[in-house]
Each structure stands twice: as C-alpha cells, then as structure tokens.
Design a protein that fits this description.
The complex is a heterodimer.
Chain A: H1 2-18, H2 20-23, H3 49-73, H4 76-93, H5 103-112, H6 120-136, H7 139-143, H8 146-154, H9 163-169, H10 172-185, H11 191-194, H12 199-203, H13 208-221, H14 227-231, H15 234-244, H16 262-266, E1 272-273, H17 282-311, H18 314-318, H19 322-335, H20 345-355, H21 357-392, E2 403-404, H22 414-418, H23 420-426
Antiparallel strand pairs in A: 1-2
Helix pairs in contact in A: 1-13, 3-4, 3-6, 4-8, 5-6, 5-10, 6-15, 10-15, 10-21, 17-21, 19-20, 19-21, 20-21
Chain B: H1 5-34, H2 44-55, H3 60-109, H4 121-152, H5 162-172, H6 190-195, E1 218-223, E2 233-235, E3 238-244, E4 249-255, E5 261-266, E6 293-294, E7 298-302, E8 307-312, E9 317-322, E10 337-339, E11 342-347, E12 357-363, E13 369-375, E14 385-389, E15 392-399, E16 402-406, E17 413-418, E18 429-431, E19 434-439, E20 443-447, E21 453-454, E22 460-464, E23 475-477, E24 480-484, E25 489-494, E26 500-505, E27 515-517, E28 520-524, E29 529-534, E30 541-546, E31 556-558, E32 561-565, E33 569-573
Parallel strand pairs in B: 17-21
Antiparallel strand pairs in B: 1-33, 2-3, 3-4, 4-5, 6-7, 7-8, 8-9, 10-11, 11-12, 12-13, 14-15, 15-16, 16-17, 18-19, 19-20, 20-22, 23-24, 24-25, 25-26, 27-28, 28-29, 29-30, 31-32, 32-33
Helix pairs in contact in B: 1-3, 2-3
Classes of the chains: A mainly alpha, B alpha+beta.
C-alpha cells in the first residue's frame, strides 16, 4: 500500500509539472492591417527598492533564526516551521528569485561585464550565507533555502546512499558551479538558475526538460534525502567549503557520546561520521603518508590535464551563447539553406544577421576567444576539485565520537532528538534508561 | 499489526488524494496534447494560408479565412490556459494532501531503530575512504570523458582558429577598425562634392552651385518609369533619381549628356522588410519622396517603407537595410545626407516626442551602423545639413520642437534649442555663418551655431515673421539668403542681420525649393514655369521658361547643366554636348 501510494504521489508530482508546459506558449502577433498599433514589448519593472531590501531583511532574519534554532534551541520543530516559512516566502511568494544559489553568477557576470552592477541584495544573498557558514555551518541549508525545504518536505522513506558513492558524487556540485560561472562570466546566461529544477514549482511555469528534471529530483527525494542539495547544488558546494572552517559546529550530544549510533540512523543525508581508529599502525601510517604525498604531487598534473580537456570543450560550449548560435545559424544558412516559417524566431534572427553579418560574425569571434580562456579555466578547476577531494579522502581523521561532517551536515537537527542524552536533557526519558558509554 | 482508525484514515486520504491527482493530471495531459494543433506559430493550416496570402496579397477571402482561423485558435488556447491554471491549483492541493497523509502514515508505521555497537568503525572508515577514492577516480574519468566527447563531437561550423576567423571576417566585410573610426576608403574630396550635386540641394544643402556658367536650353528630356517626389542628384556623367510603387521601388540612372536611361535597379528582398507595409505612405507623398545621396562610389536610396539600399554606379546592389516601420502620418520624406564616408539618416517618427525618433550614421561601404542617437522629437520632413560652423563640423537637424546639432564623427549632441512649434518641412541652410531655418507659419530664424548644451532663447540672432514659407527651403550664397513661399513670394535678405534687400511676388504655386546657379536664382513653379532672377542685392529678372510637366522636386546643378524632375519626365537644361562634371 505504502509503495503504491509513494508511486502515485511521485507520479502526481511529475504530472503536476507537465501542465506548466502549456503556459510557455507564446503567440505570434496578429497580422493587423488596420491602424491598430501593437503595444511595444515591455519587460516587467524591477522590484521596488524597498521591497528588495525587505527581502534581504527577511533573509538575514531567517538566517539568524536558523542559527539560533540550531545552536541555542536545538529545535527540530522550530527549524521545520522556519523551513516552511522559507518555502512559502522565498519559494512561492518570491518565486525562487532572488536566491542565494544563483547569486554567485551575478558576481561572475559583474566581474566580466563592466556595464553590469551587482545589486546590493544579490550581494547580501550571495555572501550572507557564506559568512554565516564560516561561523555556524550550513544554517542556510537547514531552514532558509526554499529548494532544500521543498525536498525535505517530500522526504518520506529515506534510504542510505553508500558512503563511497556519496563521497564520489560530492564533486559534481563544483563542476556545476564552474559551468555556471563561466556561462555567467561570458554573458551566455545564468545556467544555474535556468536549470534549477524547483523554480518551475515556485513559478508554476517551466519548460518540459526542467519540469522532468524537477519531477525526477522530487521522486528521488522521497527516498534519498535532498538529492539536489547533496549532489548538484553549486551553492551547497561553496557552503560545504566554508563550513569546514566554521567556528561553531553542530554537536549531536549535549553530554558524552555513548556511541549508540542512533544519530547515524537518524541522519537522512549521510552526514554522520564514524569515530577514527584509536591507533593506527606504523605500517598503515607510512602507507597513508606516501599516498598523501603522491596525491599532492598529482594535483598540478590533474589541473593541467583538466585544463587541456576543458580547452577541447570550447567550440561546443560557446554554441550555447545566443550570439555564437546566431552566427552558426547564419553560416549554416549560407551553405545549406533551411526554410523557416514566416516571422518565426529563427527567421527573424536570420534577417537580423543578414542585415549586418560582419557585426554578427565579429561578435561571435570575440565570444569564442572568451570561451577558449573560460574553458581552460573550467577544466583546470575540475582537475583541482578532484585532486583536492582525493587528498581529503587520504587524510586520516581524528574523531573519537560519532559526529557530523562539518561540510556535509545540513543542520536539520534531526540527530539531536535521536540522541539519548538530548532526550534526557529535554526530560523526554529518565536518565536511568540512558545507555552506558562504550 | 493492527492499524488504528486514524492510521487507516490517513492511508485512505492518501489514496483518495493520489487518485484525484491522477485524474487531474490525466485530464490536463490529454488537453495539452489534444490542443497542440492550436498553436498559431506552428499550425500547418495557418502557415499554409499565410504563404498563400504572400502570393496573393489582395485576396479578401483568404484574408477572412486567416482571420477567422487565427481568432479561433487564440480563443481555444486562452481557454486551455485558463483550464491549466485551475488544474494546477487543484493538483497542487491534491499533491499536498497526498504527501502529508502518506508521510504521516509512513512515520506512524516506522519501526524504531536498534543499531548495534560497531567495534570496527575505524577500520571500516579506512576501507570506505579507499573505496571512495576509487569511485572518485571513476567519476573523474567520466567527467573527463564527457568533456572530451562533447568537445570532439563538435558540430560547430565556425572557424577553429584565428587565421580562419580572419578569413571569414574579411569575406563578410567586417571592418578591421573599431566602430566609429573612419573606414579605409578615402573620403570624397571637397572639390568633387562641390563640382557635383551629391545630395538634396547640393553638397552643403544650400541649394547653390559653385559653378557659374549654366545654359538654359533644353538639352534633353527623358521619361521617368515610376513616380516619386525626390530631386535629382548628379555625380560625374550620371544623374540619379528614384521612384516606386507599393509593389516595387527602384533607382534610375541617366546619362547627363543625352538623358539615356543607363540602368534601373529595384531595391528588393531587403532583410526584415515585411512584404506588406502596415502604414503605407499617402498617395500624394509617394513611396520615393526622399532624395538620394552619393559619395561618388555608391548611390544610396531610402523609400517610404523603410527600405534603404546602396548601389554601385553600375546598378549592382551593394547592401540593403530595413529601417522601418517609418511611423509618419504624411509619409517619410527626409532626404539622405553624407559626411565623409558615412551616410546620415534622420528617422523622426510619431506624432509626439515620446516616439522613437533617431538619427543614425551608417558606414557607406557596408551599411554597418556607426552610431545612433535617440531624438526627443516627433516626425519631421526636413533634411539634415552637415556644415562647418563656429569652427566645428555640425549636423543640423530640425524637428518639432527642437533644433539639435550633432558631431558627425560620433553623434555627440553639441547644442539644442527648443523653438519649433509647428511641423517642419523646409530644411535649414547655413548663411552668413548663421543657421537659418523656418518655424513654418511663424518665423524665419537665424541662429548662432557656437553654443553648447541647451541654448533655447540664447542663440537667435534675428528673426522675421513676414510670409514665412512652409514647404520650400531657403537658398543661400555667401551673406545672401533667398526665401520663396508656396504662393510665389520671393525675398532676399542679408543673412548676417536679417535686413531685407528686396521682395517680389511671382504669384505662382511653388513646392520646389529655389536654387542658385551662377548669378541666377531659379524658382520653379508647380506648373513648370521656371523663373530666373538675379541672385544679388538688387532685384532683376533674367527670364522665364515654361516646361510641360508638374514639378515638386527641387532643381540640381552640375557640369553647367540644370536637372529638373517633373512628374513624368526628367529635364536637362544646358548647352547641348557640354562635358560632364569632373569625376573623382
């Protein structure tokens, strides 16, 4: 019964997204021959400044509340209600924009386009969670991110992802981050936003691909805790790094760890880490040191290899830029003409290109040069990320208790109430029933 | 395990919500695919009808059929969108109920964990790290493989290296110099511009020829294949005019010596130009009211639908560009102007200054946009002049309510004056170092051109309110200014201080602007009476010539000849067999 319901629930969510495809249709203008004047196409006015600041204020307040609930109140219930608020406000009310996940692209775009000025609110949304992470870990992920809240809400029957697979897939967000930044820096577009699988929910609008992707993530999210946050979210990757240096960290037990492993069972995100061996033999220690040395030496090789592989990507990657795509279409049209319909976007763009082909091709040439450099950097970045991950997996840990991984812990507070010591502290169980420490 | 009534109720609610969601989804998906053919972008039926209409643009039944089909599709699509919106909210509510009920039921069914102590956790941790490294290596290989595969399966048709790019750019005519710099072609020499008649009312727009000897015999007359109000322009041994209809707009080239039509070329298939113009120019304005311009290499023509074309002297089209739609209630009539190698087009539009008026500069060789300046003015019919005044080169433009001067190199605004209260048809001239213009029906104004910024009420040197012309532009030579009203009142002023030297009433309807050839002021009536007065401080009539045609275009002077465009014929007055003007 449960399985059937889960299946039908997932199906419902997927189909929920399907309707939005229709809303994406656009009409060609009617062929008026009278004196009627078509209204000029206009873009929505920018959100009023005070409203933008109000959003930033709400955002900062939510971050502060999340930190307070994690570290002071240790309240899972409080975080749940805060995440519902975030889902309602930043998700459905603000329609997923502005959000911290896409904000780094604003920064990258501004770095390479002097005509673009980053809004103050974008700066706040981009840097506030990172600054908080330096002190208090991923409080943003805990209850402020609407995407995370939506996935958390969908989690019905969590299963454990093998730790080795989780570690290996944890580099994917950095690849996505690199791609998002190069496309933003080259002015192609904000691909992190474009391929955010949950924004179509918030806006009740989206294309078929992104709707299918969102449905897939929600379906997986019923069994795998927050799959997007753990295996794809580029901003989560940044927060993971910042959290490694956090001043405070989430501590499961308010007392001595009894190593009962209840906290490990309670974490749906695979963030709990086992204690390290009490002693490491000299032979194992020597092998570990040699391995670490080799991997450190391999690091520049991986960066160079990545840069070389990335350089091969440039022509293909540049085709996503509208300017390059138009030049491609124009050249193809010269060699193998395609008959596009009247007034279709393709036909109109070709007319524009034919009006001044030299300018179109010159712009494409300049863009291709920018992509050459960007793809070198992108490949090198991937090599660096993989190299550093290999190094981090070769460093011997020094944990004595079960404790959350600083980078991976989302601060959801589920593990708190799973701990017998915490339950005793809260008065939920008598101290006599507490298991004895090992 | 026996489930409680609450537990059973949760499962029941989840089941009902699931079925509800499925039903709503099925309905919406069916509606989506069933209504796919209603997309006006893609409907084969509608597209086929539109293609058919392009071939038969005047077919009323076809137009009616398209309108009805289009309206029907839009109505159905709007209905479906409304249904989608309702369905989405129903689905959202159903999904929420499903997740809440199923989640709560699952939580109630959950078995409390009983983990056992793990004594080998440390060893497991090391084994796990080793396995993670191997899997990470696999992920790295997959990422690298994907990058290489995507890169190697490259479908780009653009050049792969800089040398190939350079070749492609050179082929496409991309300038090596940045936008705004002078192109490689040398600018036409001043002497060549002065010896010819390269634009409306001569090289500086004053209506005065620099040559002194002009004959008045009828050398030849040639038929004009298509109507148009534009005036002739002359370069070397060729005289150019344009004409057109809704179906076809052309440039005509004649031999100056014998009037033979050397070629006629249509400006057609202009990219972006719609096959049917939503707001065609009034019949009285014609499709070819704007006078052409030339730099001695190419001749440029603009038509009432917004098509702009550059043709070489052999009649081959060099480039075309669509600048429309031209929002002008009386039809577009401003003529083209040149500065160095750039073509200047004054595109004033609309009935209020809020419309999209602009002045643009295009590279003559390629049509590439060099600069564009937005203008807060309404539609106008005056032609800009490019003159040396107050030690700088200035483009002087007129349009209600502003006189604006621009720098021709980059379009920077030099000065402006808010002084035009009426619709402006006559073009300005430079006379006695002053910019002279008409605010039609109100004043003749002479302005200093040495200001900067807004010079409203600060730049007027003198003005005159008597018999202000509303159509013909003034003519000027040196310090003398000549004006002609539509009723034939001719006046001569001192340009420096506005002192009137003389006036005479010719009592004839005049639409053409006067011209100065040698020592003669030429005034041409709409009925073809050409009156020649002395272009001096004393009034003297040299003679009259009657031509058999209707005239609205202004005369052109070059190579000792006078070219007059009538409604049906192009006339040349001058010595038979005289040599053509000097060629570059």
């Amino acid at each position: 019964m449960l399985r059937r319901l889960k299946f039908s629930g997932a199906l419902a969510v997927m189909l929920l997204l399907a309707w939005v495809v229709c809303a994406e249709q656009r009409f060609p203008p009617p062929d008026f021959e009278t004196a009627y004047r078509l209204p000029a196409t206009s873009t929505p006015a920018a959100r009023q400044l005070w409203r933008q600041y109000a959003d930033a204020g709400v955002f900062l307040a939510a971050l502060a509340a999340a930190v307070w609930l994690i570290y002071k109140k240790r309240s899972r219930r409080g975080l749940f209600w805060l995440s519902l608020f975030s889902l309602a406000y930043f998700g459905f009310f603000r329609r997923g924009c502005i959000c911290a996940i896409g904000a780094p692209q604003n920064i990258a775009y501004a770095l390479f386009d002097p005509e673009y000025t980053v809004p103050v609110t974008a700066l706040i949304f981009c840097f506030a969670p990172l600054v908080v992470a330096l002190f208090a870990g991923r409080a943003f992920c805990a209850a402020v991110c609407p995407q995370g809240a939506l996935q958390d809400f969908m989690l019905i029957k969590p299963v454990t992802v093998p730790a080795w697979l989780e570690q290996a897939l944890s580099v994917v967000p950095y690849v996505f981050l690199g791609a998002g930044l190069i496309y933003a820096g080259t002015g192609t577009g904000f691909v992190i936003c474009r391929y955010d699988p949950f924004v179509p929910f918030f806006r009740l609008s989206g294309g078929i691909f992104i709707l299918t992707l969102g449905a897939a993530f929600l379906l997986a999210g019923m069994f795998v805790g927050r799959p997007y946050c753990r295996f794809l979210c580029p901003y989560g990757g940044l927060l993971r790094v910042a959290s490694l240096a956090s001043k405070w960290r989430v501590r499961v037990t308010p007392d001595v760890c009894t190593q009962c492993r209840l906290c490990e069972q309670s974490c749906p995100f695979g963030a709990m880490r086992e204690p390290a061996p009490a002693e490491t033999g000299a032979r194992e220690l020597g092998a570990a040191r040699r391995r670490l040395g080799w991997l450190l030496a391999l690091l520049p090789v991986l960066v160079a290899a990545g840069a070389w592989a990335g350089s091969k990507l440039s022509p293909a990657a540049a085709q996503l830029h509208p300017g390059v795509a138009l030049a491609e279409r124009y050249i193809r049209q010269q060699t193998a003409p395609v008959q596009y319909g009247l007034m279709t976007p393709e036909a109109l763009s070709l007319q524009r290109a034919a009006g001044d082909p030299a300018a179109i091709l010159k712009a494409a040439s300049d863009l291709r040069r920018r992509f050459d450099l960007a793809c070198w950097l992108f490949g090198g970045w991937i090599g660096l990320v993989i190299g550093l991950k290999l190094v981090s997996l070769s460093v011997l840990a020094s944990r004595t208790d079960y404790e959350p991984d600083r980078g991976a812990c989302l601060g959801c507070a589920r593990c708190f109430t799973a701990c017998p010591n915490e339950r005793v502290r809260l008065g939920w169980m008598p101290a006599a029933e507490k298991p004895a420490p090992l | 395990m026996n489930a409680s009534p609450f537990h059973r109720a949760l499962w029941l609610a989840a089941g009902i919500a699931g079925v509800f969601c499925l039903l709503v989804c099925a309905t919406m998906v069916y509606e989506h695919f069933a209504a796919g053919t209603n997309d006006p972008w893609k409907s084969p039926q509608l597209l086929a009808l539109k293609d058919k209409l392009a071939a038969e643009p005047r077919s009323q039944p076809l137009q009616t059929q398209i309108r009805q089909l289009d309206q029907s599709m839009r109505r159905r699509v709007r209905l479906r969108l409304a249904l989608d919106k309702s369905g989405a909210w129903l689905l959202l509510g159903g999904a929420l109920a499903l997740v809440l009920a199923a989640g709560t039921a699952a939580a109630l069914q959950k078995t409390p964990p009983m983990p056992q102590p793990k004594t080998d956790a440390g060893e497991q941790s090391q084994k796990l790290a080793a396995r993670a490294r191997r899997s990470l290596a696999g992920v790295a290989a997959a990422v690298a493989g994907t990058l290489l595969a995507v890169g190697l399966v490259n479908t780009s048709v653009l050049p792969a290296n800089q040398a190939a790019w350079q070749k492609l750019l050179a082929k496409a005519g991309a300038p090596e110099t940045p936008a705004g710099e002078a192109p490689d072609e040398p600018a036409p020499a001043l002497a060549d511009l002065q010896n010819n008649w390269p634009r409306f009312r001569g090289w500086d727009g004053s209506g005065a020829a620099t040559q002194t000897n002009f004959g008045t015999n009828l050398a030849w007359r040639s038929a004009i294949p298509a109507p148009g109000h534009n005036s002739p322009i002359v370069w070397g041994d060729r005289v150019f005019i344009s004409g057109g209809t809704e179906a076809r707009r052309e440039v005509f080239c004649y031999n100056v010596t014998n009037g033979a039509l050397l070629w006629q070329r249509a400006v057609e298939n202009v990219p972006g130009s719609p096959p049917k113009v939503a707001q065609p120019p009034p019949v009285d304005t014609t499709w070819a009211a704007s006078t052409l311009a030339t730099d001695g290499r190419r001749v440029y023509a603009i038509f009432g639908n917004g098509d702009l074309g550059a043709l070489n002297f052999d009649g081959a089209v060099v480039w075309t560009k669509y600048l429309g739609p031209l929002k002008n209630s009386y039809g577009y009539a401003a003529s083209l102007a040149m500065w160095a190698n750039s073509l200047l087009v004054q595109l004033d539009a609309g009935d209020t200054p809020d419309e999209e008026s602009k002045l643009i500069s295009l590279q003559g060789a390629s049509g590439r946009l060099l600069w564009e300046r937005s203008r807060p003015v309404s539609a106008s019919w005056a032609t800009p002049i490019v003159v040396e005044a107050a030690g700088r080169t200035q483009i002087i433009t007129l349009s209600k309510p502003l006189v604006i001067a621009y720098a021709p190199a980059d379009g920077a605004e030099l000065w402006r004056s808010d002084m035009l209260g009426n619709e402006v048809v006559p073009s300005p001239v430079l006379a006695g170092g002053l910019v002279v213009l008409f605010n039609p029906g109100d004043k003749l104004l002479a302005l200093r051109a040495d200001g900067a910024g807004d010079v409203t009420n600060k730049c007027i040197v003198w003005s005159n309110e008597e018999n202000v012309p509303d159509i013909p532009s003034p003519a000027a030579r040196g310090d003398l200014l000549f004006t002609v009203t539509s009723m034939g009142m001719v006046k001569c002023f001192e340009a420096v201080d506005g002192k009137k030297n003389w006036e005479t009433n010719l009592d004839m309807e005049v639409k053409a602007s006067p011209g100065i050839a040698g020592d003669r002021l030429v005034v041409l009536s709409a009925d073809g009476l050409l009156v020649m007065l002395r272009a001096g401080r004393a009034l003297e009539e040299f003679g009259r010539i009657q031509l058999e045609d209707k005239f609205t275009a202004s005369p052109a002077f070059a190579g000792g000849r006078m070219f007059l465009r009538g409604a049906t014929n192009l006339f040349c007055l001058g010595p038979v067999g005289a040599p053509p003007a000097k060629q570059p």
